[in-house]
Amino acid sequence: MPLNRRKFLGRSAATGAGVALAGAVAAPLAEAAEAADAAVVPGAARPGKRPRRYSFTVMGTTDLHGNVFNWDYFTDKEFDDKDHNDVGLAKISTLVSAVRKEKGRRNTLLIDAGDTIQGTQLSYYYAKVDPITAARGPVHPMAQAMNAIGYDAAALGNHEFNYGIPVLRKFEEQCDFPLLGANALDAKTQRPAFAPYSMHRLRTPHGRDVRVAVLGLTNPGIAIWDKANVQGKMTFPGLEEQAAKWVPRLRSMGADVVIVSAHSGSSGTSSYGDQLPYIENAAALVAEQVPGIDAILVGHAHTEIPEYLVENKKTGKKVVLSEPLKWGQRLTLFDFDVEWSKGRWRVVKAGAKVLNSNAVAEDRRITRLLGDEHKKVVAYVNQVIGTSKEAMSTAEGPYKDVAIIDLINHVQAETVRAALAGGAFAKLPVLSQASCFSRTAKIPAGEVTIRDAAGLYPFENTLEARLITGAQLKDYLEFSARYYVRTAVGAPVDPAKLTNADGIPDYNYDALYGVTYEIDIAQPVGSRITKLRFEGKDLDPKAEFVLAVNNYRASGGGNFPHVAAGKQVWANSDEIRNTIISWVKAKGTVDPAEFASVGWRLTREGAPVF
């Protein structure tokens, strides 16, 4: 896949260059005397005069995940959470307009750090239901909104690859700004498959433009998480390696300021263990190891970091990092002061902060622009597909075996069992894994809609079947049980503080269906699984099973043991979300009595915690 040669290409791929984009240019007139001085000797300081200085702001978002409106398509109402955050590009647009009005539009840039086209039913609809790749297909709502707001560049996120490369390429074509990925390489040529960087000129009142380079870096984990979409097509080397390659080039090309937009967290940790020789959350390591970077817009981790200073080990210079909260809840502002010295602009001050989108109203220009698309998706998700005899909820799913998670597992196990019927593995028992992806998902008693079923599975994961032994299953469960905070016998148990030990997210805790077991949370990690049984008998370590598992886990996501190396006996290209929807449609009536049971529970020395 060659370097994209469309509207943003600056130099040929053979020279190792990337894109050149004239971003916001020119600034309002400064003081008349200073402007006059600059006109006498452009860019040169006169004796007794103040140094030539210029200030500008780079705004940043990340992990927008298909959010344009302040709307939750799974609850069918305005978004809200316990902190009363708001979401969406319509809110971001209002913040951006206010900053541009204050600073002067020509003194600002707007960038993003990835994960743009996956996450809501709005983005799903235009990837799968009314796809942008169809002949005379629509323009993606995220492209429309970001174009209207006036983004200057965006890094690729790992979720950009969820729908396959053709959808991503079409989205790229529809954007009026470049998608950057210096470490997204063509598998054959090992050259950038996307623009590595963009260059922006900000015109100062001193006759010398400030050249701002934005280097885009994405996550190496794409090679694992979207293996089916990228294997043999693209490779994703480490962020530090590629930053060390590109930053000196950008400086040699005349960049006065270098900003990295990195779809990578700052913690230095990885969820894929030793499956890749790269770090997943490497933004701080990039700042620490690669000289020549002034700021990093951080993404991927879904955390809020207003300002984080990292000292570069080679130069001692402080690099400013900032990560705005996901879904358009925050907007980062990097404020730079530069000074003309020895024939170039140098950064003399850099800082960052975040603005909260709940402080402003939605920009009606954006909501009007995409009103029809929003209405289509609302109508789509509210289609009735069946009924449920009982209400079910994920509220207690992280620490109890609840019926709604059993529903996911039952559908997965039944689907795999039917797929293997009559084949070589038909006689093996089928187990299933599932996670609590959302603590607010619900299936109501009565009518069940697409949004109810889809709310159980907000990710575009597909279903696979892998072979696993009883001994490996025990290892798998011990690994999963790390999720619980060790709690001594007799100590009070607060469900709000019991889970997510060491920052493990809910989606990296698996409940298994088809076996029974207890998790003793008083015991250390690695010694928690007790009474592991199959069909009422202690599990035989040598017994062989088929595990129905999502492709994220099967490809190594979360670094669970044994599954990624296990033999694949079946796989499906349809999303698990759609498999659940189809199952509900076929059944007509969802009855928890047919599939729900208490297969696992938390204990302390054999006594149930709940």
TrEMBL record:
Residues 1-32 form the signal peptide. Its cofactor is a divalent metal cation. Residues 384-564 form the 5'-Nucleotidase C-terminal domain. GO terms for biological process: nucleotide catabolic process. Coiled coil: none annotated. SUPFAM superfamilies: 5'-nucleotidase (syn. UDP-sugar hydrolase), C-terminal domain, Metallo-dependent phosphatases. PROSITE patterns: 5_NUCLEOTIDASE_2, TAT. It is found in: Cell envelope. It catalyses: a ribonucleoside 3'-phosphate + H2O = a ribonucleoside + phosphate; a nucleoside 2',3'-cyclic phosphate + H2O = a nucleoside 3'-phosphate + H(+). GO terms for cellular component: outer membrane-bounded periplasmic space. GO terms for molecular function: 2',3'-cyclic-nucleotide 2'-phosphodiesterase activity; 3'-nucleotidase activity; metal ion binding; nucleotide binding. Keywords: Hydrolase, Metal-binding, Multifunctional enzyme, Nucleotide-binding, Signal. Residues 57-303 form the Calcineurin-like phosphoesterase domain. PANTHER family: 2',3'-CYCLIC-NUCLEOTIDE 2'-PHOSPHODIESTERASE_3'-NUCLEOTIDASE (PTHR11575:SF6), 5'-NUCLEOTIDASE-RELATED (PTHR11575). Belongs to the 5'-nucleotidase family. This is Nucleotidase. It comes from Streptomyces alboflavus.
